[in-house]
Specification:
The protein is built from 14 helices and nine strands. It has 378 residues and is an alpha+beta fold.
Length: 378
C-alpha cells in the first residue's frame, strides 16, 4: 500500500492516491533499523486507510519548507518555473523560518497561525526597519508555500487568507533624487571607478553595482543577475516568469529580459574597461557580481536585493546624503530623471530602461515638475 524511503536527509512515505503517486515527509532524519521502518510504514498506512494521513502526525514547519523547495526545484528543471523565482521563494521562506526558529522554536506546521505572520510583519517593520513594499513582498513570497500546505492537507486554514498584506509604496517625489544629489552620487561613483581602474582603490561590490546602475539605468536586480555569458538552457524564451541578463562573448552588448521585454545595451568605453578588469580581478565564473561565502570561496551564486539594501544606505551616508527614503532603485530613478532634465527623447529613454509604454516614463516628468521651475524663472 505504501513505502518508506530516504531522500537526502529525510525519510518519506510514498503512497498512491486516485491513481497518482504521492509522497509526504515524515520529518525523521538519520538511520533507521528495519524494525523501526516497518513500524513507521505501518502507522502511516493505517492513517491513510482511515483518511487522516496528516492529522495527528507531527510535521515540522522547516521540514515542509524543504519539501516545498524540492518541488519547486523540480519545476525549474522541467522549465515550469524560473530559477530567479525559486531564489526569491527561498529567500522569503528563509527570512520567515529564521524568525520562527529564533522567536518560537521548532514549531509544527499546524502551529503557524495568522497571529504568527502578523507578529512577523511587525518585527520586519520595527526591528528590521523595512518599508511596507519590502514587508508586503515578503508575505506575498510565502503565500504560495501555504497554498501548497493547504493542498497537501498539512493545514486546514491558510493563515495568509485573511491577512492584511501591506501594499507597495507608490512612487513619489521623495524617492527621486534632486539634481544636486544625483550629481553628488555620480561624481562620487565615477571617481571611485577611475581610482579602481588606476589601481588606487580596491574592488567594492556595492560601489561597483551602484555605478553600473547610475551609468545604464538598469534595475538593481538586473545588475545583480548579470552573467558573463548566456546559459543556453535557462537564459532563453520570452515567458513572463523568466528573467535573465547576460553579456555577449565580446563584451560589446548586454542582453536583458525582464517582465517579458527584451532590450539590449551597447557596451563600450569605460564600462567595457571596467568589465575587463573585473574579469581579471574578481575571477567570478558565472555572475559578474558573485556572492562570496564565509570561507572566502566563490559560490557561483548572486547577491539578492535584501543583502544590498543596508550597504547601499551606508554608501549614501559616505557620499553625504543623509537619512532619506532612498533605496537602490533610486539610482535608476536618478538616471531617468537626469535624461529628462536634459530634454532627451522620452521614447528613447523608455527603450533604454525597459519601460513597457512611454506613459511610465512620462510619470517621471510629473514627479520632477517642480525641479524644472528653473527653466521658466531662471
Amino acid at each position: 500500500m505504501g513505502s518508506i524511503y530516504r531522500n537526502g536527509k529525510y525519510w518519506y512515505f510514498g503512497y498512491c492516491e486516485n491513481g497518482r503517486q504521492k509522497c509526504m515527509t515524515t520529518g525523521i532524519q538519520g538511520d533507521l533499523t528495519d524494525t523501526r521502518k516497518k513500524e513507521i510504514k505501518r502507522d502511516l498506512e493505517i492513517r491513510y486507510e482511515r483518511g487522516n494521513l496528516n492529522k495527528g502526525f507531527s510535521l515540522k514547519f522547516t521540514h515542509v519548507i524543504d519539501d516545498y523547495i524540492i518541488l519547486k526545484e523540480k519545476e525549474v528543471f522541467r522549465g515550469q518555473r524560473s530559477i530567479n523565482t525559486l531564489r526569491s521563494d527561498r529567500q522569503h521562506l528563509k527570512l520567515f523560518s529564521n524568525y520562527v526558529l529564533n522567536k518560537l522554536g521548532r514549531l509544527d506546521i499546524t502551529d503557524i497561525k495568522r497571529s504568527v505572520l502578523e507578529n512577523y510583519m511587525e518585527y520586519r517593520f520595527t526591528v528590521d526597519g523595512c518599508n511596507q513594499t519590502t514587508v508586503g513582498n515578503n508575505i506575498r513570497g510565502i503565500q504560495g508555500f501555504f497554498r501548497y500546505c493547504l493542498d497537501k492537507d498539512h493545514i486546514e486554514v491558510n493563515p495568509t487568507s485573511l491577512l492584511k498584506i501591506p501594499q507597495s509604496l507608490k512612487r513619489t517625489v521623495d524617492q527621486i533624487p534632486s539634481r544636486k544629489e544625483f550629481e553628488d552620487m555620480r561624481e562620487y561613483l565615477n571617481q571611485y571607478v577611475v581610482d579602481y581602474l588606476n589601481g588606487d582603490d580596491t574592488y567594492h561590490w556595492v560601489k561597483m553595482i551602484s555605478w553600473f546602475q547610475i551609468r545604464t539605468g538598469m534595475r538593481n536586480g538586473e545588475v545583480l543577475m548579470m552573467k558573463w555569458k548566456q546559459n543556453k538552457k535557462t537564459d532563453t524564451g520570452g515567458r513572463h516568469s523568466f528573467s535573465y541578463v547576460y553579456l555577449n562573448p565580446s563584451l560589446s552588448k548586454l542582453i536583458i529580459h525582464f517582465k517579458r521585454r527584451r532590450r539590449e545595451i551597447p557596451i563600450k568605453g569605460v564600462i567595457k574597461e571596467v568589465l575587463l578588469k573585473l574579469k581579471d580581478d574578481v575571477q567570478s565564473k558565472v555572475y559578474v557580481f558573485e556572492n562570496v561565502g564565509k570561507g572566502k570561496q566563490k559560490t557561483n551564486t548572486l547577491y539578492d536585493n535584501t543583502s544590498f539594501s543596508r550597504p547601499f544606505k551606508r554608501l549614501l551616508d559616505e557620499i553625504g546624503i543623509e537619512d532619506t527614503q532612498y533605496s537602490s532603485h533610486t539610482l535608476r530613478h536618478g538616471f531617468i530623471t537626469d535624461l529628462i532634465r536634459k530634454d532627451k527623447n522620452i521614447v528613447k529613454i523608455g527603450k533604454i530602461v525597459g519601460h513597457r509604454t512611454t506613459t511610465i516614463t512620462e510619470l517621471y516628468e510629473h514627479l520632477i515638475s517642480s525641479d524644472l521651475e528653473d527653466l521658466i524663472y531662471n
